[in-house]
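Table 4 source record.
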Amino acid sequence: MMVTPQRALWAFLTSVLLFLVISLTVRLGGFDAFEQSLMISLRNGDDLSVIAGPSWLSYFMLNITALGGWPVLTVLSLMLAGAFVVQGQWKYLCILLAVVIGETVITGLLKDVFARERPDFLPHLIDASSGSFPSGHSASAAAIYLTLGVAAANTVKRKALQLYVFATALLMVLLVGISRIYLGVHYPSDVVAGWSVGAAWASVVWLGAWKITSSR
């Protein structure tokens, strides 16, 4: 499961293509009916302010979504940055900083460009104020958790452990995105677009790191 430049390039191209397809379809309104139907199906039919399913699901989603928010990711990034400094792992420090800063800027710009309104046909179960497309939580989770997953996977030799580490990071990314849909603050297309942006930018940073390292 070792991540190579070839796999990173494939991930970048796939992510960019997916984002382009989704953004064009969103512009044309191609997902509107499906997304509304899906999001309403996740709520209690008698009360749209309640998530369908067991009573603990709302609490679970509220806590999972926090893992993709700026407070948690900022603290996590600072802790990791400190660890990299202490261990003299300057390459990983630069990668982390580039991923975090770049993803934040890119996602903010895209939100301004698309200026998509948040879903307004059901109650939001958590506060959200910025543009809806792409999902910032999903983009941040994809960029940061996948970066950490790649870094961790590349430091172990056993393929089974590499797969487990990367799969865990991927699961975290998926859960954060799904929580945004459940809480009613993002359309599914916002979330998938966010994943695409985060994965694409993380891939670019890793490719740049490999290029710089190999040229020395």
